[in-house]
Amino acid sequence: MGNDKGSKLYLFSIVAVAVLGGLLFGYDTAVISGAEKGLQAFFLGATDFVYTDAIHGITSSSALLGCILGSALSGWFAARLGRKPTLICAGVLFLVSALGSYYPEFFFFAYGKPSLDLLVAFNVYRIIGGVGVGLASAICPMYIAEVAPSNLRGTLVSWNQFAIIFGQLVVYFVNFLILGEHTNPVIEKIGETLYAVHPSSDPWTISTGWRYMFGSEAYVAAVFTILVCFVPESPRYLALNGNDSRALAILSRINGKKAADAILRQIKETVTVKSERLFSFGIMVIFVGVMLSVFQQAVGINAVLYYAPRIFDSMGMGNPMVQTVIMGIVNIVFTLVAVFTVEKLGRKPLLIWGSIGMAIGALGVALSNIVEVNPLVPVVCIMVYSASFMFSWGPICWVLISEIFPNTIRSAAVAIAVAFQWIFNFIVSSTFVPMYNMSLGSMGDKFGHMFAYALYGLICIVAAWFVYRLVPETKGKTLEDMTALWRKKSSK
Questions:
Q1: CB burial string 56-95: b at 16+ within 10 A, e below
Q2: CA-CA distance, 186 to 41, in Å (whole number)?
Q3: Helix (H) or strand (E) segment spanning residue 231
Q4: DSSP calls for 56-102
Q5: Strand, coil or helix: what is 195?
Q6: Which among 131, 168, 172, 352 could bridge 66 via Cys, Cβ 3.0 to 4.6 Å?
């Protein structure tokens, strides 16, 4: 009887390992939120170059350059090496990056002496980690989608987003605990783009605190790298490469023998060759996948996640690290909303309602910088904006990207879509600080605060329209159904 039904325990255990890659993804991208002020203060002490606002924006976002590279290469790795070996590579890169970011001086530089060369070394380690994030961000949801039954696929892929957000919450807590009784440095503006560290700043935070924050990731990276060695290869990858017996064995263990035979037969019916040209199913499927990725980042969410303590500090509402942790908890709760409703409500309704909620929150923050309001108002608006993203664009974008593309172009198409996601992540994250700090007339810095959130709010409205008009609903459909859908569309 167990063989007829398959093993959900087996399915959940291998998905849990893949989801750990999502946790590392969230951990790596959000660790900068607690470390960036100490890092900025450290490099402001350099004597051989001037550490400007623009350089800090690039340094805070440098991992994203690696994410672009890793996601762009993920299709090649996934198609030639397989999903599992690619995840192992990602784990090793996470580990190297964590240790290197903790101790960028490693053999070549004097410990604790900031310099331009050390800044370059630090950014290289962050980029290495970014390559790991890029690989994991594309392959983890793809792997989950390819092992999951169609009636559980949306939920299980959504757990990957839950893990990303949980990883961010974990690192918020870890950063908070590492900081302990110490305080973030006080950084003063001394010119248009120039800053200096106030003499009263805590020296431990400047010299050591940020190192512990980056280094803490090494523990999780090591566990992930070991565990992923024990999961099976994706059955759809095996079937695409002619290894039907292994594919059937894995599908049988997950779905039961009878269902596995039908699934494998369906896979083989939709696959005439190992791969097809990228535009074999027309340009629209690629356009929709890419624009889902673009909108997920263009709405501005990662500017909020990466710079949360700085944003809350500017609102004057108590300890910004505490508020960042609270926001992380809110994000977790609303990601669970998506996990438990995506198979009931469908993908499109969640995306549309989430876009509207984000627009209300972002425009509320913008308005709060024009009229005098209680500081609690923009904090609540930020929470509404973030929560709306977490039950919509956060998980659902990954669900759609993992399932919308036909089998034979999935590796290449996912790689392109996720690369665009990281390109726009970098654009948003690296431009946020200069845009947020823009001054104009009597409004001063409030102009930049207002402009940034008004822009993000308008993009949210456009995103809702895009989903309504162009994105197909994938709820309840098999991956092979999507192949048939796009083949039919491309033949018209």
A1: bbbbbbbbbbbbbbbbbbbbebbbeebbbbbbbbbbebbb
A2: 8
A3: none
A4: HHHHHHHHHHHHHHHHHHHHHHHHHT-HHHHHHHHHHHHHHHHHHHH
A5: strand
A6: 131
CA distance 416 to 401: 10
Report the mean per-residue pLDDT for the chain: 85
Average pLDDT over residues 142-161: 85
Exposed/middle/buried for residue 269 (C-beta within 10 Å: 0-12, 13-18, 19+): exposed
DSSP state of 45: T
Judge whether 317 and 309 are in contact, CB under 8 Å. no
Is the pLDDT confidence value at 273 over 70?
A: no
Q: Which residue's structure tokens are 């040209």? A: 277
Name the pTM for this structure: 0.77
Q: What is the pLDDT of residue 1?
A: 41
The candidate with the shortest Cα–Cα distance to 417, out of 79, 4, 71, 45, is: 71
What tokens does 302 get? 């990662």
Report the amino acid identity of residue 258.
Answer: K
How many C-alpha atoms does 161 have within 13 Å on its Cβ side? 33
- Between CA 137 and CA 415 the distance in angstroms is 10
Q: What is the arithmetic mean of pLDDT over 437-463? A: 80
In one letter, which amino acid is 489? K
- 313 versus 347: the higher-pLDDT residue is 347
Q: How many CB atoms lie within 10 A of CB 309?
A: 24
| Structural contact between residues 325 and 33, judged by C-beta atoms closer than 8 angstroms | no
pLDDT by residue (tens digit) across 382-397?
889 989 998 999 889 9
Q: What are the pLDDT digits (tens) for 407-448?
A: 778 888 888 998 898 888 878 877 777 777 776 766 666 777
Q: Contact 251/478 with Cβ under 8 angstroms? A: no
